[in-house]
Amino acid sequence: MANTIRAQLHEILDEYSKLTLQIFSELSSGQAAAATDLMGKLIEKDKELNNAVKELKKHQEFQMKINQTIKDIEEKDKKITQVMQILRDAESILSAQVEEGRKQLKIREQSKQSAPFVDELVSYSHRISATTSAPPGWSDGQETFLYKFPAPMETEIRSGMLYSKEAEDLFKT
Q: Of 17, 41, 63, 159, which has the highest C-beta tally within 10 A?
């Protein structure tokens, strides 16, 4: 017999059809004994054919399972590919963040090594504040104030918009 199920079925069907033709030719020639012999062989071929068909059905079931497994594997491969892409994206984002963190850490380390003292900063800012900005309402020719009191002085209050002579009279009485 042949190796594949298909070849086996073709071979059995060819023999089945030859036996059928021989039976009809024997019956038409009138030899019933030879036809009976051929009928026995035809029944055996029919059993072989049924067995081959059963084997073919099993083979088809296995092939369907194989095809389904292949589809499942392809779906899993697609999901794995998607997860891999997500992980690659996350890796690139994280590596960028790590690199940024390293830069920040390097800057902090450098600033710690060359950190000026707070007193020096306050002293320097106090020195340059009188020369870099003018107080509100200052015009050219006025004297500069190196130090201003934390509360307004009486002259400043009287020159303000909220001050009125009537309010001063109320407080005196």
A: 41
